[in-house]
Amino acid sequence: MFGHVEVVLKAAPGVGIVSSMVLQSDDLDEIDYEWLGADNTQVQSNYFGKGQTTTYNRGAFHPDPNNQNAFHTYTVDWTADQIVWQIDGKTFRALTQANAESGQYPQTPMQLKIGVWSGGDPSNAPGTIRESILTKGYVYNALTTNSEWAGGPTNYGGGPYMMQVKSVKAVDYSSGTQYTYGDTSGSWQSIKSAGGTVGSTGSNPDASAAAAAPSITAISNGAPIPFSGTHGDTTSTYTTPDVYPWVPGPTTLQTATTPVTSIPGLPSGWTVNPSGKVVPPSAAPVSETPFYPCSSE
Description:
The chain is mostly beta strands. It contains two helices and 18 strands. The protein has helices at residues 126-129, 209-212, and strands spanning 3-10, 17-25, 30-36, 42-48, 60-63, 72-78, 82-87, 90-96, 110-118, 133-135, 138-139, 164-172, 178-181, 191-194, 219-220, 252-253, 271-272, 278-279. The strands form five sheets. It has a five-stranded antiparallel sheet with strand order 8-7-6-1-12. β2 (17-25) and β3 (30-36) form a beta hairpin. The protein starts with a strand and ends in an 18-residue tail after the last strand.
């Protein structure tokens, strides 16, 4: 947990299509980039703490011209003190722990999720497909009294809509083989690392980034909930929060191992023991090569 992520990508085009680069934890702390396929000029940054979706006043839009036609490098540098968002090495937003919404600073172990999803699917909530967004001093893409967050309904017949990822780099500021939640506070100090330490800072944080970042002038008041679309993980063994604040139970993330008991092509009756050695059946006959002594004259 805590670290530095760089992803080189092109966002997917298409009305209703949303490209996402998301850092998300088991208890739904989250740091986001999202690109709307209907807009080739901007990117949205956002953050959430513990899946709190009663308000959406933490998202903002930023200039990102030509994001669908050219590769750009998108960076998140995340420590216990601040989060820095950068495009092509230039900081456009910084959030300090002290300035975050109360209880909303992301600070638990994250996974990186990258994908494209249909925000304009008819099954989504109206607030996802159509919502009022104030940006650059006017209502963005105003078609009626409301604008459309995802740009409008997705035209599936116009696909495929492709997001291109050229490279991914990640540096973990912590070490160890697994982590556990030490209590239900949701604070980074409660996280325990097995065989390592939790690093609250790293080699990349820029202490001046917060001062150098431009002010937030565009607020999104209708983004999708932080675990919707491809953000959610239906295969996770963890319980998705349904209340706020969420009280997590004890949990452990570790690498699962499945013992190998057979290998394709082994003769019938042969097995593989726990150490990985191929073992013949105990009743199998053992053949030996005859030995004929030789004498020289």
